[in-house]
Each structure stands twice: as structure tokens, then as C-alpha cells.
């Protein structure tokens, strides 16, 4: 049996399983909840970054909104701030669409359309890998559009419905598309049209360009809140099973493919810095959300619409760095007291 490296979060999570037996008159607050509340308070007035404006509807976001939510694979939730406020998922849809493509078409056919290499360029770059003439990876717009071409269905709304249904199963509640954001994306999405026609020219997608883009724009326009994203992340962390409903949402055999590409490509040209500082598979979106996964343990979601130059939530990145540090979440943090290996060696 392979050695399991579990960060000290495992120790905290174990104590949470006993939390329900604590007498109501005791004032002890679990450490995780304290950490989440403290991090939210620390950064709630941090004011750097700018709200996305290239999609007009996104420019209407309240720059003061800031929410955090953690969901464990045991179904516990720890939330702070504006965690109930809905926003559009934007590029955080990409790993889930990649998962659906892998489930329907398998690795070989899916990877004929998209690679798994970091691009080092902006998320909306009009560029293909010059060696393969495929999009670099499914976490940038070109790759996500190629994936949308695969998973779209006829009639077009059935493909959108299939995607939304999966996201509902992962979130554990009914979700919907924001029609105003969808209209805004469709009206202003000429750069994505240029990307799609480049791929049509190179034989990556079929001729139903408008159909493909409708699938892609609709996926990006899905409304979620921090709890939804945290539950989606926890579902991936929990081998594809929703921690609360117990429903098997995703095929376990492909989750490692998705988490690997998220780890190396999920934050675009900030991916290396993220891997170094936070060390978790993650995906950001220009709506202000960030989703991260601690495999077999929990999902993390942060929302704040003010973005940095790379299109990532400024408060979101700061919060995730602190969560990783306080709870020992980095994938390569082997010195934590919660590690089974370290305990065995003592």
C-alpha cells in the first residue's frame, strides 16, 4: 500500500468528527473555523486589483464582495463573508468540462483535441501549440472551446442542460444560467470567435462554431456561490462522490487527469507561482472565483471580483496562500504533524 501523506488538516478534520458531541454550553470554536474567519477579516478591506470589464455584465460586480468556504469530504462547511452571494463561474467551468469530455470520449480521443502543457501566455491568447497545432491545455480559452466542441449536443440546449445537471449534482443544489451574462458574453465574445475559427482552420473543432461557442459561453455563465464551488471541489476531492448526498457524480478514473492539469495550468501564467506558494490543484475565473482541491480531504472556494493582471482574484490568491500555510495544505509539505508517514517514523 502506498504511503499516504496527509497534512495537519487531517488532525483538525478528525477533531471535527467529534464536534457534534461537544456540549452546547462550551464556547470552544474549531480551529478551522477560526482560521477561515481570521483570514476573511484580514483581507476584507484589501483594495488592490480591478473588476473585469471586458464582459460588460461582469463590470457590475460589487468590488467589496469577499467570501470564503471550505467543504470537507465528511460534509462539514466553514464559511465567512459573502459566501452566499452568487456570481458566474466563468473559467472555473473548464476542469469540469474536461472531466465530462474524458468520461464521454476517453483520454486518447480527448487529447487529440487538446494538450496538457502550460502555455505561459494569457488565458485568452489566440495561439495554438506550434508543435502539435492543438490548444496547449483545457484550462485556457482555446482548450476549453475545443472541449466544448466535443461535449456539445443536439439540440444545443441539451448539451448545456447536461453540463448544468452535472454541476448541480456536484454542488448539491439547483443551479441556473445567468441570461444577462450569457447575452453579454455572446455579444462581446469576438476574441473567442477568433480562437474558434483558428481551430476550425486547423481541424481541431468542427464547423458548428456558433453551437460550440454557445456551449462554452453558457458554461461560463453558470451562477454559483462559494458553497457551491466548495462542494464541487470537495466532490472531486472525495473521489467523485458528493460528500453530502453520497451521489457518485464523476468517474473516479479521470479525476487525477483533471487535478494534474489544474495543478500545472489552472491559474494561467500565474500557475508556477501558485504551485510554489499554495501547492494545490486549482482553477480561477474572471468572475472573481477561485476553486482549490486538497485530495481526499476538502474543497476550497474563495470569491472576490477584483482581479490582478493575470485575471485572478487578488483577495482569493491571498486567502488561499494563508489557508495553505495555516492548515499545512501544500501537496509537498511533508513535515506536518498530521502526516501518517511522519507519525509512523516517530
Radius of gyration: 20 Å
Alpha plus pi helix count? 13
Proportion in β-strands: 5-15%
How many separate structural domains? 1
Largest sheet: 5 strands, antiparallel
Top CATH class:
Alpha Beta
Give the beta-strand count.
10
CATH fold descriptor? Beta-lactamase
> What is the helical fraction, as a range of percent?
40-55%
Order of helices and strands: HHEEEEHHHEHHHEHHHEEEEHH
Catalogue the unreliable spans.
1-29, 337-346
Mean pLDDT: 89
CATH superfamily: DD-peptidase/beta-lactamase superfamily
Oligomer: single chain
Summed up:
By secondary structure, the chain is an alpha+beta fold.
What does this structure look like?
The protein has 346 residues and is an alpha+beta fold. The chain contains 13 helices and 10 strands. The strands form 3 sheets. It has a 5-stranded antiparallel β-sheet with strand order 3-2-9-8-7. A 3-stranded antiparallel β-sheet has the order 4-6-5. A hairpin with a 3-residue loop joins β8 (289-294) and β9 (298-303). α3 (93-111) packs across α4 (141-151), α4 (141-151) crosses α7 and α7 packs across α8. The longest helix is centred in the first third of the chain and has 19 residues, at 93-111. The relative contact order is 0.19. Mean pLDDT is 89; it is low at 1-29 and 337-346.
Characteristic key phrases:
five-stranded antiparallel β-sheet; disordered C terminus; 346 residues; 13 helices; alpha+beta; Beta-lactamase; 11% strand
